[in-house]
Amino acid sequence: MKGMSLESENLPFNEYVYNDRWRSRTLDVKSYWDLHRRSIESFEEFWASIARELEWFKPWDKVLDASNPPFYKWFVGGELNLSYLALDRHVKTWRKNKLALIWEGEPVDQSGYPVDRRKLTYYDMWREVNRVAYMLRNNFGVRKGDRITIYLPMIPELPIVMYAAWRIGAITSVVFSGFSADALADRINDSQSRLVITADGFWRRGKVVRLKDIVDKALEKAPGVENVVVYRRLGLNDVPMTEGRDWFWEKALAGVPHNAYVEPERLESTHPSYILYTSGTTGKPKGIIHDTGGWAVHVYATMKWVFDVRDDDIYWCTADIGWVTGHSYIVLGPMLMGATQIMYEGAPDFPQPDRWWAIIERYGVSILYTSPTAIRTFMRFGEEWPRKHDLSTLRIIHSVGEPINPEAWRWAYTNLGSQNVAFGSTWWMTETGGIVISHAPGLYLAPMKPGTNGPPLPGFEVDVVDESGKPAPPGVRGYLVIKRPWPGMLHGIWGDPERYIKTYWSRFPGMFYAGDYAIRDQDGYIWVLGRADEVIKVAGHRLGTYELESAFISHPAVAEAAVIGVPDPIKGEVPIAFIVLKQGVAGTDELRKELRQHIRNTVGPIAEPAQIFFVSKLPKTRSGKIMRRLLRAVATNSPLGDTTTLEDETSVEEAKRAYEELKREVSQ
Ligand code: WTA
């Protein structure tokens, strides 16, 4: 398999970890499975009982409409509004003046103390959301079902704009602020957004990132955009503004009363709340569509089970809202619960490697949701950094986005959690809308094991199957599938229903195919090993190798490209590229640099390849398919396996030579 090979690490299937704090919540494995079985036996009633805990304007007529699979519908006939659930509902209670958000900007003063801080109560958020909803509706004519592209950094206006959009039934399409102009333009065009909301820029590792400049470049390729709203995070005074199209935030809010109130729309449960673009196995990212009611129920349930959020908790999810983790577990989840959460703008190691630990100490963070890449990065910095701070408030840590290697788990459990936290690796994906496989300390805690995802959550029927779709025996690698619809599930790909069926529901009929390799151990715990397709996870960020290949080919010097992911001790995986240049073009170091920059510009900095190899041909099958598997074998020094379909053996030899040569150069 590709990626950071968990398999080769000899997974600790039998290493059970218990601690005192969670002893009373720890269930033995068998009792957990009894509970899980009951949730599946009556799974519609099970989900309905959770949905009843939310406030619906109108109750549903049918929990699940499965009459036209795989186009499932949840809570059909029900009406609700996410903005109402996350704000109005709390504003009517004592939580009105509770802090919803503690925001910290990146810059610090000489003593290392943050200089930009904002604290917003639920009432503050509610007022801001109403003002922005009024602006969207009255000043920009946004209507139910319209798409809005949001390209904002990690500032409170990001969730505020999202809730404002949901309040009036608009569909958000958030684009990660680390994506390039081209990636942004593609997403604007695909979603046919006419309004873009952005900022002048933001701080990242002590440097200013000029976001609006990127938007201007994108808009050269996205002519459908009529208006751009620009929030001044930095107050730059040289932001080019196009007359009649671009509006600074204050101008955009012209005429909006300070106490504006916008009645939340009564939205059908099945109404789309957001589109989020994610990478797959073609060059074009797909716009994953999520509904309103099912998503809310799934996220709400998992907030309770997995994060056990209580009113005195300080919750911090370190993800960016530009990815699905931020959508479900920063924007929606904590606010559905009426929780207080931390939001941080900048880099984890600015001004020094203890920034996160300083934040945990400063606010007394009790629940931390982070990524294996972050943990491995901190491991490298050393345990003296967390040791400088009091982290004893932490009671739950979870990771997400990629497999966590047992060593990183043990490090964090000890050095961050003082061996006294519940700590799991929550498996899910953009398509699932919420966590599916995870420890659930809010409900029970099956004994922890370093590196596992644990058993599936109640209500989810998950399996590991072989090529033919039959359950794989314990300990044997297979494909991860979900055998029943679930509330937070995707509802298609924007503009491409065929692709939805083909990608997710065709490989194993009647089951959702996740695209991951996994092992189920003797206790039924799932260990997700990594992607089984051409998707790679770079520092937890999901990228398609085909996307990178198309980006390479768009450069005038490149004839052909093959991109693969190879294991990396910190980032999990990194992309490397094998490039065939056009006739007459020389493969110089200069060109290598230029190609790197080209990828940064066309996809984004996160996609920059770790290495670029120039070769004269790529290994292909006789029918012309690139055999990435062989390149992967070359790059990871593993056996080539079956090469009978290979058209020209010298291609592999050449790739090997190029690889060896570069390795020699690097080591010299
Ligand atoms: C991977 C992120 C192992 C997996 C929420 C999945 C994980 C892909 C885990 C989805 C985990 C996510 N352990 N692998 N705890 N969580 N993955 O859409 O390969 O950005 O298919 O969603 O991340 O990535 P996405």
UniProtKB/TrEMBL annotation:
Its EC number is 6.2.1.1. NCBIfam families: Ac_CoA_lig_AcsA, PRK00174.1. Pfam families: ACAS_N (PF16177), AMP-binding (PF00501), AMP-binding_C (PF13193). This is Acetate--CoA ligase. It catalyses: 3-hydroxypropanoate + ATP + CoA = 3-hydroxypropanoyl-CoA + AMP + diphosphate. Keywords: ATP-binding, Ligase, Nucleotide-binding. Plays a role in the autotrophic CO(2) fixation pathway. Activates 3-hydroxypropionate to its CoA ester. Can also activate propionate, and to a lesser extent acrylate, acetate and butyrate. It comes from Thermoproteus tenax (strain ATCC 35583 / DSM 2078 / JCM 9277 / NBRC 100435 / Kra 1). Transmembrane segments: none annotated. GO terms for biological process: acetyl-CoA biosynthetic process from acetate; carbon fixation by 3-hydroxypropionate cycle. It comes from the Archaea. CDD domains: ACS. Residues 89-493 form the AMP-dependent synthetase/ligase domain. GO terms for molecular function: 3-hydroxypropionyl-CoA synthetase activity; acetate-CoA ligase activity; AMP binding; ATP binding.
